[in-house]
Amino acid sequence: MLESGAAFVPQGRMIFSNLSVYENLVSGAKGDVAMSTFDEIYALFPVLFEMRKRKGGNLSGGQQQQLAIGRALVTNPKVLVLDEPTEGIQPSIIRDIAKALREIRKMRDLTMVVSEQVVSFMLDVCDRVLVLDRGRFVHEDARENIDTAKVKRLLAV
Length: 157
Hints:
Elements: E1 6-9, H1 21-27, H2 35-44, H3 46-50, H4 61-73, E2 79-83, H5 91-107, E3 111-115, H6 119-125, E4 128-133, E5 136-142, H7 148-155
Parallel strand pairs: 1-2, 2-3
Antiparallel strand pairs: 4-5
């Protein structure tokens, strides 16, 4: 995906548990990474700077998710794809991640595609909402026009 300008943050994070936070960040890079890129990531996720020498496997789930997003950002993508970024993460960290994603949108000229079932998070970070059911689009609208109750009904299992 790197060659196409896309970066992927997978469900379950898939960080390298035996590598340090810093090593995880550079693992996604192709070539040298500017120090300003690390400064930006550490500003978005201060805990990563504090724990940059700690093994990825020793981080909490929320910290690992921040690390996975940071690793994707190191590639300087044009499209950032996030699969279930709130899975298994405590609410306060979910809010931090939403805030960071909004900041990323302001700072970088990139598109984000977020696959998510937590409607409040989705509405916090996305401009458009598409609901899929068995591979078909069953609802689509701009965030400001979304009927939250309808979307929640469509997502109910």
